Amino acid sequence: MGQVHIVGAGLSGLSCAVHLADAGHSIALYEAAGQAGGRCRSYHDGQIGRVIDNGNHLLFSGNRDALDYLSRIGARDTLIGPTRAAFPFFDLRSGESWTLRPGAGPLPWWILSAARRIPGTGVEDYMRALRLARAGPGATVADCLPRGDAMWQRFWEPLCVAALNTAPEEASARLLWRVLRESFGQGEAACRPMIARDSLAASLIDPALKFLRARGAEIHFNRRLRAIGLVDKRARVLDFGERRIQLGDRDWLVVAVPPNAAAALLPGLDAPQDVRPIVNAHFRLPAPPPVAGLAPDLPILGLIGGTAQWLFLRGEIVSLTVSAAQALADRPSEEIAATLWAETARALKLPAAPAPPIRVIKERRATFAQTPEAVRRRPPAQTAWANLALAGDWTATGYPATIESAVRSGRVAARLVTE
Ligand SMILES: Cc1cc2nc3c(=O)[nH]c(=O)nc-3n(C[C@H](O)[C@H](O)[C@H](O)COP(=O)(O)OP(=O)(O)OC[C@H]3O[C@@H](n4cnc5c(N)ncnc54)[C@H](O)[C@@H]3O)c2cc1C
What is the Å distance from ligand 1's center to 32 Cα? Predict the structure, then answer.
């Protein structure tokens, strides 16, 4: 085996590199940006005066590939999460609070207990999930479920927006069913929520770079691939502008970049191109707030009836997430900050004034729009070129565009290289 050239040091490229380096392959990793992590990164923010993440990221105990990746890079213990699955919620309109606690087994007996159901919902509301299981490939979530009732407002819509970053009116019903099957459908062992204790970089990125360097991998930052020389059904040349690399007969290329960048490099590639933004606002409070209802081993709160869907607390930093945020992302950051600070103050019962230091991060290309049509267009890792594989959360992993999908895609591409 020759050298494996991996383009893109997001989680898909890192996962591919980790699998291959683990198996003793020689790796060269190229990243256009000055740091690794792509859409899952951290940085020191001058305004906030702390290391912050580009956005809150939630993992689940059923994310097998992601957890295997963390174990390989020696960072499994950097995630925190409760030993029992529990999701606290707060309704910003009514002021009601509740905690969703899925049962231990795959059969949802817990829905028979009114005390454990979401306020305002009945058993039949949960049984309608089966309509997603029977959905055709072209069906949206809204095609399958009644809109506007308590179950829609307090479960289906927030779940769909959080899991698929796509409004239920356009999101793929089959893909949401896949999420339910792999999380709630496996019982609480698979749906315990987990987050990075210190930062995304400290959990998912820096340990991977350390792991790769220790195995002799070359890692190049500020190295954007401009074009690929494709001859006789093989990738032959990597063109980085000022530098060109010839690929030997036994070399491989793994393209682990977002779909728009992949389509620019590979003419004729059919890939989902429509994207949806995620907006995050980070607030630095004077001190960690005393918060009733938030567990120390999982300081997150689901928000209903406002703009944001999730609130994360890390020390004195409160971060709010708005997914499927097309309309919000076009508004000025000051206006977004004011709206999200009002929701934070209400949810955490803090004085509304003065507003603390704020950073708003708009990730305009957070994920592809996970519509039925886009899901059909996800390509496999294998391409028409014999030594070229694709990786990325947008490839055909069967899973929504998430950390799990990105890491899985890297493993699949690595397997293709080693077969
Ligand atoms: C705000 C936000 C919140 C999210 N929340 C969650 C969550 O709660 N849970 C979850 O599981 N997932 C979440 N995600 C999704 C998750 O971050 C992504 O699915 C994952 O990081 C994608 O990894 P990737 O490697 O496929 O792509 P990317 O991270 O986009 O990596 C691709 C890399 O390729 C580089 N690149 C592009 N073009 C070139 C080129 N020509 N040459 C060299 N390098 C190039 C890019 O700079 C980038 O580093 C969230 C994403 C965002 C943005």
Answer: 13
55 lines ligand 1 (CB under 6 A): yes
Q: Quick one: which atom of ligand 1 is closest to the CA of 11?
A: 25
SS3 66: helix
d(CA 29, CA 406): 16
Q: Is the pLDDT of residue 292 over 70?
A: no
The string of pLDDT tens digits covering residues 225-274 is: 999 999 999 999 999 999 999 999 999 999 999 999 999 999 899 999 99
Greatest alpha-carbon pair distance for the chain in Å reads 66
**99: CA distance to ligand 1 center in Å?**
30
Start and end residues for every CATH 3.50.50.60 domain found in the chain: 3-34+221-272+371-418
CATH classification (class only), 3-34+221-272+371-418: alpha beta
Q: Is the pLDDT of residue 291 over 90?
A: no
pTM value > 0.70: yes
Tell me the sheet residues that pair with 228.
238
User: Distance, CA 12 to ligand 1 centroid (Å)?
Assistant: 8
